[in-house]
C-alpha cells in the first residue's frame, strides 16, 4: 500500500477519530484541523499514547480564508493531501418554525460550505498528481429528512450533490469522490438527542442498536483505497437498515 497524507476534518470527534485510527492503521499519515487548541492537544496526546501521530492544524472549516491557510500549513508539515474526508459537522436541531437564521447558517456553513472551503485548496494538487480520494460524510437525514433538522438535512443532502458533480469533473484525473451516509452512531452528537426521542429512533433501526464509529470508518477506508479506483459518485448508506433507499 502507498503511504499517503489523509486529512480528516473534525477528526477529534466521534466518527472522525475512528476514521483517523483506521487510516493510520492502514499506514497513512493522518491529519486533522482543530479550533480549540487545549482540547485538541489533549486529544492529540491520547492518540499518540495509542501510537498514532496526528498532524494537527488550526482552522475553522466554515471560514474559507482559514481553510486555505490551514491546507497550506498542513502541506508544509505533512506533504500534499491525497485523501480528504469532509467529516466536520454540527447540529442545531429545532423545528423550522422556531429556527433562527443563525441556526440555519451555522449548520450550512460548517457542514456544506466547508466542503467548498477545504476541497478547493486541495483539488488542484490532486488533479496535477493524477490521484485523489475525496469522501463526504453525509447522513441518513440528508436522505430521508428528519423532524427538527431542516438545516442539517438540507446541508447533508447538498453534500451528495457536491460529490456527484465533483466525481464527474475529476474522474479523468484519477480522483474518486464518494459519500458515506451514516445513520445514528453512538457519538456525543447522537447522545445529545433527548433520551426519550433517541429511544424512539433506536426502536426504528432494524439491526436494533446504534452504529459504532468503526463501522463508518471501515467504509471510508474502503473508498480511499487504491482498489476503489472505479467507484465514484456513490452514496453508501450505513444505518443498520434504518433507511433503505435505492
Ligand atoms: N414526527 C412527528 N411529530 C414529532 C416528531 C416526529 N418525528 N418528533 C417530535 N414530534 C412532535 C412531538 O410529539 C411534539 O408534539 P406535541 O406538541 O403534540 O406533543 C412536537 O413535535 C414537539 O415539537 P416542538 O417544536 O415543541 O419540539 P421540541 O422543541 O420539543 O424539540 C426536536 C423538537 C428538537 C426536533 C426534538 O424532537 C429532537 O431533538 N429530535 C431529534 C432530532 C434528531 O434526530 N437529531 C439527530 C441528531 S444526531 C445527527 O444528526 C447525526 C446523524 O447524522 C444521524
How would you sum up this structure, described in words?
It is a single chain. The chain is of the alpha/beta class. The chain contains 9 helices and 7 strands. A 7-stranded parallel β-sheet has the order 3-2-1-4-5-6-7, sandwiched between helices. α4 (101-129) links the parallel β4 and β5 (132-137). α1 crosses α9 (213-224). The longest helix is centred in the middle third of the chain and has 29 residues, at 101-129. The two termini are 32 Å apart.
Short description:
With 246 residues, the chain is of the alpha/beta class.
Give the arrangement of secondary structure elements.
Elements: E1 5-8, H1 14-25, E2 29-34, H2 37-49, E3 54-58, H3 64-78, E4 81-86, H4 101-129, E5 132-137, H5 140-144, H6 150-170, E6 175-182, H7 188-191, H8 195-203, H9 213-224, E7 235-238
Parallel strand pairs: 1-2, 1-4, 2-3, 4-5, 5-6, 6-7
Helix pairs in contact: 1-9, 3-4, 4-6
The structure holds acetoacetyl-coenzyme A (CAA).
Residues 91, 93-95, 139-141, 146-149, 152, 183-184, 189-190, 193-194, 197 line the site of acetoacetyl-coenzyme A.
Name the descriptors.
246 residues; alpha/beta; Rossmann fold; seven-stranded parallel beta sheet; 9 helices; binds acetoacetyl-coenzyme A
Q: Which ligands are bound?
A: acetoacetyl-coenzyme A
User: Looking at the chains present, what oligomeric state does this protein adopt?
Assistant: single chain
Low-confidence stretches: none
Helix and strand element order: EHEHEHEHEHHEHHHE
CATH topology: Rossmann fold
Question: Which percent bin holds the helix content?
Answer: 40-55%
What is the first-to-last residue Cα distance?
32 Å
Amino acid at each position: 500500500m502507498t503511504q499517503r497524507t489523509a486529512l480528516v476534518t473534525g477528526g477529534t470527534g466521534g466518527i472522525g477519530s475512528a476514521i483517523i485510527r483506521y487510516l493510520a492503521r492502514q499506514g497513512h499519515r493522518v491529519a486533522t484541523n482543530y479550533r480549540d487548541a487545549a482540547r485538541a492537544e489533549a486529544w492529540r496526546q491520547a492518540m499518540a499514547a495509542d501510537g498514532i501521530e496526528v498532524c494537527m492544524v488550526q482552522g475553522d472549516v466554515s471560514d474559507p480564508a482559514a481553510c486555505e491557510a490551514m491546507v497550506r500549513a498542513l502541506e508544509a508539515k505533512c506533504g500534499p493531501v491525497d485523501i480528504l474526508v469532509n467529516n466536520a459537522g454540527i447540529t442545531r436541531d429545532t423545528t423550522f418554525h422556531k429556527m433562527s437564521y443563525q441556526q440555519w447558517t451555522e449548520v450550512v456553513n460548517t457542514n456544506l460550505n466547508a466542503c467548498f472551503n477545504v476541497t478547493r485548496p486541495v483539488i488542484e494538487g490532486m488533479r496535477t498528481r493524477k490521484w485523489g480520494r475525496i469522501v463526504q460524510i453525509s447522513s441518513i437525514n440528508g436522505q430521508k429528512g428528519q423532524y427538527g433538522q431542516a438545516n442539517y438535512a438540507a446541508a447533508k443532502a447538498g453534500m451528495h450533490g457536491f460529490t456527484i458533480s465533483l466525481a464527474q469533473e475529476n474522474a479523468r484525473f484519477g480522483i474518486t469522490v464518494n459519500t458515506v451516509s451514516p445513520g445514528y452512531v453512538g457519538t456525543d452528537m447522537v447522545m445529545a438527542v433527548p433520551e426519550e426521542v433517541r429511544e424512539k429512533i433506536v426502536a426504528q433501526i432494524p439491526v436494533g442498536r446504534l452504529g459504532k464509529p468503526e463501522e463508518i470508518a471501515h467504509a471510508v477506508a474502503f473508498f480511499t483505497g487504491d482498489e476503489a479506483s472505479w467507484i465514484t459518485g456513490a452514496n453508501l448508506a450505513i444505518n443498520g437498515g434504518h433507511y433503505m433507499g435505492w
